[in-house]
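Can you give me the bound-state structure? Components:
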Amino acid sequence: MGDLSMVDWARAQFALTAMYHWIFVPLTLGLSFLCAFYETLYVRTGKEEWKHIAKFWMTLFGINFAIGVATGIILEFEFGTNWSNYSWMVGDIFGAPLAVEGIVAFFLEATFFAVMFFGWDRVSKNFHLFSTWMVAVGSNLSALWILVANGWMQSPVGMAFNPDTVRFEMQNFWEVLFSPVAMAKFTHTTSTSFMVGSLFVITISSWYLLKGRHMEMAKKSIIVASVFGLLATGYAAWTGDESAFVNASTQPMKLAAYEGLYDGEKGAGLVALGLLSPEKKPGDNLAPFIFEIKIPGLLALLANRDSASFVPGINDLVYGNEQEGIVGVAAKMDKGKIAIADLAAYKAAKKSGDSQAAEATLAKFTANQEFLGYGYLESAEQTVPPVATTFYSFHIMVFLAGFFLAIFLLYLVFAVKDTIAGKKALLWLGFTSFFLGLIASQSGWVVAEVGRQPWAIQDLMPVNVATTNISTGSVQMTFFMFLAIFTLLLIAEIKIMLKQIKIGPEGY
Amino acid sequence: MTVGKTLWKIILIKLFILFAVLKLFFFPDFLQNNFATDEERADHVFEQITGPARNTSQVETYRNIELPDRHKEL
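Here's the bound-state model for the whole set.
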């Protein structure tokens, strides 16, 4: 197992590359559908103005796509170098979804992207429109497979551990694909990306209206984007509720962390607003909040679809709660250590040719293997993720979603009434919305990935067991290389986009 | 369209840096490069994940452990 310094640098590198990648992806997922809507309006109405609008947003989409493409592949490089234990053990599970993702991305996105971007005067109107829709569908389908893989990390289903190959082997592809966690992740991630795409259109259109340029194009773009954004917000709220419900059964510690719930209770309330006590630790007597505003019963409703039900807190999950039938982590750690010991004994018995002993130790291992990951922990409190980071990220994400709902609603109403150009204060608020959308989107991922700590694979493999035994220095070096490369790419994207935004849709 | 040419240049430079520089020189596949067969790779990962139990006396301790009652419900 790698030393902790190397583990933290490997973690930081993966977080850096994932977060940079996630600047480009939600815009691709959301703006692709908006391009399809604008072009559909052109083909249906025959009006050239919709063609100019479609081509303009398509150009910005193309810039983002071109600069963002392949930034995700770096994450796969990191699997092989920094996370070799993890990549070996999950290879059989991840192989299928990532292979399908590559094929879908290649055949749908890349092929039809070329037609969409370069085929305006080369193919028929209908085939071009079809290609645009295929780019939108293809990119969202790509996201599905990545999220299925991530979903499996959070809730490892449809598999069995093979102690001879030391791999988790897929037993049921459909169980992995349709796992409630994977489905909740896919639907919630794509719905919030639709919001980000809509906010992008809102932001740039607001700029045009503030400058008194391309007014008609801006207003028309806003109407479509606000409708899409509103629908996406509703969908995001529904899928967010589903995500919390799924978290309650598969990752109750994550749910407890993002609500700052230390002591479980019946009819647990949802913290609408709160300031955590920075000194609070699991098991102590300090109050968890300096102040909080709670909505009674709402967390219980979210978690269990029953506003009077019990929601376990961090302390219940760490130390156990006999009344509620919750086993503490200490017991799981003992079982985990036995599992590790029996696994080693099984290997030794096999090597020495003692088949009886091998069979016996394998049976014992199998009885305790669901606690394997706990055997690597040094204290029960290690199962608690960084509560403050998880809590504040969750609340930032939800608060901003409420803001976006208001933005989409107000923009739609005033754009339809054709009074939006005069609403300067609203336009300035709208101008900030894409940047806030990126913050909300990143915050969601922080909740998902910080909230699952210490686990690389929930309950089965903590992060510090997942890494390669390599030097910290090499990871540090590539961390700073990525920081430089991604920053350059981001600067290039901003510069090229700003140039096209200055030209505006009349150039198309 | 000049933006198209610019984007193609960026894509090609980026792909070159990713695959011909980063992958080749900075992101070797640890298990592929250091072990010849899948059996060797599995053995290596096995040693990594059973590290804490490799000490023989520890193995015996955990194999013979008498668990307190709180574990019975697990």
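A couple of observations. The CA atoms of residues 342 and 365 of chain A lie 5 Å apart. Chain A touches chain B through 61 residues (CB under 8 Å).
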